[in-house]
Design brief:
Elements lengths: L10 H5 L1 H16 L18 H9 L11 H14 L7 H6 L18 H9 L5 H39 L8 H42 L5 H16 L18
Helix pairs in contact: 3-8, 4-7, 4-8, 6-8, 7-8, 7-9, 8-9
């Protein structure tokens, strides 16, 4: 009986080389991050913002705590990140599909704040009309106002519990040096994160004002008054935060420009 041999069909692939390359590129691209470019699974976890404490303390020459995060401390970090990440720092599609990146704290000497970055991105980015640029600015400011109260409500709880923690250190029996150091380090972390957010809010306000000024001279519109009012509201809230924390390193970061 003659042997049945069916040749492998390759003509289809040869006729569509572009499709093959696209599919291979998509498969390889997925290896660098999560599936279909989404944020990797090792980032998406309950402690995905734990790095904020280590970054803040490390940037001022301090060591992070080895204690696990409490629910309140975890919430503080989760609420801090959207206020720390610069507005318009990544396209909307990356906000959906990933590209999550840790950010340097304002105490890093190499970090340079440019108050014009936000406004230039807002103005240079294609929009259907100048009104939509004003609307984007208003939306960004309103989002910050919306995030303000939940973050500082969380900060109040954490700082108050840290005061109780500090008072309890003198009464704990057989407190080891390691436990003492970790407790102090965690309190420093929490304080620095609150200060980090305060600094970022001041930077955002400065950026928003620059952007609004440029929009007004390039494309005057009555909606500018609404944007100015919201920026003023955010500035008033930031100037009088509901919780005051003393600088851990003896100095606060100043916002220039």
């Amino acid at each position: 009986m003659p042997e049945m041999c069916h040749p492998i069909r390759t003509a289809g692939f040869r006729s569509r080389p572009a499709l093959v390359l696209i599919l291979m590129g998509a498969a390889l691209g997925g290896c660098s991050g999560g599936d279909f470019g989404r944020t990797r699974a090792d980032f998406r976890n309950d402690d995905m913002h734990r790095w904020l404490g280590a970054e803040a303390t490390g940037s001022v020459g301090l060591k992070p705590s080895h204690f696990q995060l409490t629910e309140n401390e975890r919430q503080l970090r989760d609420l801090a990140y959207p206020l720390i990440e610069p507005p318009l720092s990544r396209p909307a599609w990356k906000s959906v599909f990933g590209d999550y990146q840790p950010l340097p704290s304002p105490w890093r000497q190499k970090v340079v704040f440019d108050r014009t970055t936000y406004g230039r991105a807002l103005i240079d980015e294609p929009h259907r009309s100048h009104t939509s640029r004003y609307q984007q600015l208003i939306e960004d400011v309103r989002n910050d106002i919306t995030r303000f109260e939940p973050f500082f409500a969380s900060a109040i709880r954490v700082i108050e519990l840290d005061r109780k923690r500090s008072a309890s250190l003198r009464m704990v029996s057989e407190l080891s040096p390691r436990e003492q150091a970790d407790a102090v380090a965690r309190m420093e972390e929490n304080t620095l994160i609150v200060q980090w957010v305060q600094q970022c809010l001041e930077r955002r306000i400065s950026s928003y004002r620059w952007a609004l000024e440029r929009l007004v001279i390039q494309a005057p519109d009555g909606i500018a008054a609404d944007a100015d009012r919201l920026i003023g509201e955010l500035a008033a809230q930031t100037a009088n935060p509901p919780v005051a924390v003393q600088p851990v390193i003896g100095r606060a970061v100043t916002v220039k420009g």
